[in-house]
Amino acid sequence: MDNLLSIILKKYGQHHDNPYVIALTGSVAVGKSTIAREIANRLAQSAAGLTVSVISVDAFIFPNQELVKRDIFQEKGFPQSYNLTALSNKIGELKKGAASVSVPVYSQSINDIAVNKYEKIKAAKILIIEGVTALRIHDYDLSIYIDADTSLVYQWFLKRTLAFIDNSRQDPNSFYYPLSHMTPAKQLTLIDQTWRKTDLKNLTEFIEPMKKEADIIVHKTDRHQIDKITMTKSVSSNCPRSLKK
User: What are phi and psi of 124, to 5 degrees?
Assistant: First the structure.
């Protein structure tokens, strides 16, 4: 992580406009939100006055009702299920000097955009956009792809989904509540179907092809440990193309 932060700070130092936009993407369950928050926190601590904000692209996914209306609910998470124009507009407002912007809130509990709930994103010197479609906005200055073996990503996806189900047992409003009262075998069957028909398809057809667009590839191994950081020639300049964490 220290090497990644050094690269970001070096590139940020060569940039003279605010905000400096970092797009961070990768598969579902690969740990994008966690690593984005860690990068934001550590960057903010690295220098006095360095401010960092994070926007999740999930805030711009169409509500479930709209996805059903468009007959693309089964493609939730695919590029066409996001309002990327609205996301780009918010980034544009911050670039034009807005003190803050309000964005919708995506609730993992209900698996949908929360009604009448918004998050205020403050203007910052560095803005991180994280999510499965982050590299499709084309409004960024630096792009990062979080990579891992597909078998590991599936294990993380399974573990996370089972945690959502377990935490929903006493919450009838949760999207996962009906699953919490199924047998473990039925739960596993449905999770595997979702992975193969939606998340794996999204990864192979839409997310992974964006890896070639990334300036930095961060590879993760067991327990989400970073074992390698690979940079493109334009980013590495005088640095080695591949660094251990």
Answer: -145, 165
User: Facing residues of 217 across strands?
Assistant: 145, 230
Nearest CA among 44, 10, 38, 13 for reference residue 24 = 38
Please tell me the pTM assigned to this model: 0.93
- Tokens matching residue 189: 């069957």
Contact 211, 192 (CB under 8 A): no
Q: Is the dihedral of CA 102, 131, 50, 138 positive or negative?
A: negative
Q: Is 185 exposed, middle or buried (0-12, 13-18, 19+ CB in 10 A)?
A: exposed
Tens-place pLDDT, residues 2-30: 889 999 999 998 877 789 999 999 999 99
- Alpha helix stretches (DSSP H) within the chain: 2-13, 32-46, 64-69, 84-95, 150-167, 177-180, 184-194, 200-202, 233-236
Spatial separation of the C-alpha atoms in residues 56 and 66, rounded to whole Å? 19
Exposure pattern of 197-207 as b/e (b: 16+ CB <10 Å)? ebbbbbbeebb
